[in-house]
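Figure S7 source data.
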Amino acid sequence: MKESKQILSVENLKICFTQYVKGLKTRRITPIESLNVSINAGEIMAVIGASGSGKSLLAHAILGILPGNALCEGDITYCGQPLTEEKKIELRGKEISFIPQSVNYLDPLMRVSEQVKIGLPKKDADKQQKELFHRYGLKEKDGELYPFQLSGGMLRRVLFATSIRDNIKLVIADEPTPGIHPEALSTILNQLRAFADDGAAVMLITHDIVSALTVCDRVTVLKDGKTIETTMAENFSADGRHLQHWYSRALWNALPQNSFSVHEEVEAWL
Ligand SMILES: Nc1ncnc2c1ncn2[C@@H]1O[C@H](COP(=O)(O)OP(=O)(O)O)[C@@H](O)[C@H]1O
Ligand SMILES: [Mg+2]
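Tokens for the predicted adenosine-5'-diphosphate complex:
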């Protein structure tokens, strides 16, 4: 089998924040300690972990949109080259596409059709925007609305439409599916699969392991800012005996369709 090309590699990522507590007293928190993940062309890597395990910070570190008080260490490589802060700015929205977790990333003062057109080739931005709306079940007239006038599910679909661009090599989707009805859910998962089948590397950050497993190739499990296991998607099956780490097995077995046995460490997940 042909080795596929590595698009993204994150090695020994560490992120800490210095916070002021009382007056000039500071404390340092380190939500990401030693995080490793790599994604090849043509592959969907699901990144799973409880709330607060560092999934969004990982996405933001790759995109260069961490808050100013964050200190970031480690090596991030994109297509074999160090992904510097300048490169992140240059590639974001072009080769590197982001579907954020929060709909607050949309501009509240701009009509949603205009937001979807940003970054599309000028000469057929109108046409492409209309096609994207159609693809995601949005009506043409919805484009005239501002974000506050749309439901959460519709906003998620608008966000998704803003991520579809030509020449995408890396897609980072941060929990793209919550609150979305089943039909739109499968459209979105299928679109992520299509990105990968076209040769992009896709990072699918999610809580929903079951949906992710329908499209992903591998899974990286995070716990408290550390990578604890990266494994083939098919190892999440039966009683999870092929998973190496007890925590991955605990996550898997806590699902209602499995034995529903809730280990105290995964309670926060549910
Ligand atoms: N700007 C920030 N300042 C301080 N701590 C932060 C900041 N952003 C995130 N964190 C902390 O980092 C941890 C991981 O956050 P996040 O990556 O958003 O988790 P996840 O997306 O997995 O739910 C959380 O415990 C959160 O409190
Ligand atoms: Mg998050």
